[in-house]
Amino acid sequence: MLQRLIYGICIATLLVFVIKEIRKPSLVSPYVLVGASHAHEQSLDGQGAIVAVIDEGFDSSHIFLKDKFSSTHRYNTRNPKSQDISESLVFEDGKYIFESHGTHVSGIISNLAPQAKIIPIKIEGYGGDQSFVKALRLVTNCPAQIVNISMRLSYTGREISPNVRTALLQLAQADKLIVIAAGNDSAPMMENPYTASLVELSNNPLMKRRLLLVGATSYKKGTESLAEFSNFPGKSPFGMPQTYFISAPGEEIDSTITGGLFGQKSGTSMAAPMVAGAASLIKQAYPHLQAENICYLLLKSARKMTVDGKALPHSLFGAGILNIKSALEQGATL
């Protein structure tokens, strides 16, 4: 009887162990995948880096973010004299909710570079594309070295307007590194007038190699791939779409959301701040580097293989997947 009892206890213990193993999450943290832990082990936290985030609103009272936002530089394009950066109410799934997009983007940057300062710039669409021009001009004259744009810079859905294009060129000429989400159309960059205009701009000599376009990757059950929704460079004469394109995790990313909470979002909007956060760590490590040097480092050091050992084609991933460890190591040679 005792022997059967002991046998039963052993079987039950084994079952509990097996169930626990089955229930273990298969996802590896995207922050680990891009090598953030290496930077943190080197005591790099983004100290001294300043990132401007152009987005639709921010929860500045979020306990994780309230000390990250600049207290002196925060802007609203509807009223440049206002420091109201609060999230807007949007109608979604039959109810009004706060738009937490800018909050989520800011949290990703802070997860990578917790001591980097964020300058929030709230875009309101009432002014059309001129709202983007106002935002970009504000960034040109603010102390940010890095700019994250996780939103579409065209309300028409067509190519960026001449005024927005000029404002982006002026931003680059002010020695700012510009990081722009590549979009979520599951399409090659040259097939859409808007994304094609971004490719043209990234290759424009006046941009001075200071613009990065960011696609999103996915990691599930040990397999790394391009996220299904992500735009990608595609194949094109002379490889223009691939030249300034880099990829980073952008699916099911945990970060800050409205009301002091945390949640997941997916999109190239989430991949772009991964790159902006990485740029902040590089800026701290090598403060003498100009924007084009940081851009060069991020592209050159990008990982060319998936974590499961498969080659990353340039037509899908551009330079490859963000690799902070390699970027920091190679930065010592510049």
List keywords for this structure.
8-stranded mixed sheet; 334 residues; Rossmann fold
Explain the layout of strands and helices.
Blueprint (H helix, E strand, L loop, with lengths): L1 H22 L6 H4 L2 H6 L8 E6 L19 E2 L12 E4 L2 E4 L2 H12 L4 E6 L6 H12 L5 E4 L12 H12 L3 E5 L11 H10 L8 E10 L2 E4 L13 H4 L1 E5 L3 E5 L3 E5 L2 H18 L5 H11 L12 H4 L6 H8 L3
Parallel strand pairs: 1-5, 1-6, 2-5, 6-7, 7-8, 8-10
Antiparallel strand pairs: 3-4, 8-9, 11-12
CATH topology: Rossmann fold
Distance between the termini: 74 Å
Helix content: 25-40%
CATH class assignment: Alpha Beta
* Named CATH architecture: 3-Layer(aba) Sandwich
The structure class reads: alpha/beta
What number of domains? 1
Helix count?
A: 12
From the spread of the alpha carbons, the general shape counts as globular
Mean pLDDT over all positions: 89
Strand content: 15-25%
Catalogue the unreliable spans.
Answer: 5-26
At the fourth level of CATH, the homologous superfamily is Peptidase S8/S53 domain
